[in-house]
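Q: Sequence in, structure out?
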Amino acid sequence: MRAMDDKRATSYFHHVRRIEEMFKTADAIMEENIEPHLQSDSEETDSDDE
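A: Exactly. Output:
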């Protein structure tokens, strides 16, 4: 980072922040929309026994 000018270094930090926001959004979608419909391995095994 030292070899870069301020504009280039700042652009990297902004890029990382955008990527972090994308991951936060994906995580929120996973928690709200997908996780409630997932079964744990033990639940899956129990339903197979019936």
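The two ends are 60 Å apart (CA to CA).
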